[in-house]
Description:
The radius of gyration is 15 Å and the shape is globular. It starts with a helix and ends in a 5-residue tail after the last helix. By secondary structure, the protein is α/β, with parallel strands linked by helices. Helix 5 runs antiparallel to helix 6 (131-146). It has a single domain, classed as Beta Polymerase, domain 2 (2-Layer Sandwich), CATH 3.30.460. It contains six helices and seven strands, in the order αβαβαβββαββαα.
Amino acid sequence: MNNQIRQHVASRMFALSRLCPGIKTTEYVIGAGCALAILGLRDTFDDIDVAVSANTYQKLLRLGHKTVTNHPSGKPVIHILPVNADIHLDPLTMEKPTIIIELPGRVSVKIMSPEALLEQKEYLLKTRGREKDKRDVEALQRYITHRDVPQ
Length: 151
């Protein structure tokens, strides 16, 4: 697994926790490209997409963060610009299986399980038809079938 990517995610999640006091890093579930990068299935990612419960989303609103009204998902999202994080109100994702990963600096994060990520990426491929989603689906299928994570 790419230690540089893990360090980058750790620093951004630590910064997110400082921008959102009282919310633990394990209250967020990381999905999409960032989770794939943590698993070693992608070399890069842009933003950090995370899902949160309704309770955590309300905490973020009370901290003064605002819902973005024009997000491509059409769902409630808070964008935290300094760490380029999209925080999705997504109770259904919160109920799916997760993996807790210890990142550098003793930052613990939850990521979607490979099976839940595959479901997410298949949906994105079907609805958006992006080439990167196709590559992600193929990588996840290989990973799940063979557990052949690149070193």
